[in-house]
Fold:
Amino acid sequence: MRIAIASDHAGFDQKTQLVPFLQGLGHEVVDMGPETGERVDYPDYAEKVARAVAAGEADRGVLICGTGIGMCIAANKMKGIRAALCGDTFSAHFTRAHNDANVITMGARVIGPGLAEFILDEFLKTPFEGGRHARRIGKIAKIEEDESHV
Ligand code: RB5
Structure:
């Protein structure tokens, strides 16, 4: 898959470590920054990755900040994005299987590098189950659509 990844300064080291991990799994990785660990604003990087996924330029997005929360809130503002904050492999599995999440966010100040790799691997290899879950995703999309016309 083609994976877009970005972080803020708090997630920079973990993002840097996850790029070769993803490449090792056979994915094409687009690193959308930042290039250094200088202080930056997480919404700027959430927007870059969310836009790439929403536009179909990337199959999945990965966003790392201190808690993963700011990235998740910001990415979910983009139409068509279903971003999930994951700190365990169970959540990573079921947000793919049931929510068809297309962006994962993680907190580098919450989980260590080893767990981040396990979570990401689970997220990327788990397919969406469809069926009744597709109906629910459709309802989320309807809320999004209705709100954009208010
Ligand atoms: C940066 O200090 C921190 O606020 C950010 O990385 C993130 O945790 C926000 O949700």
Summary: The mean pLDDT is 98. The two ends are 36 Å apart (CA to CA).
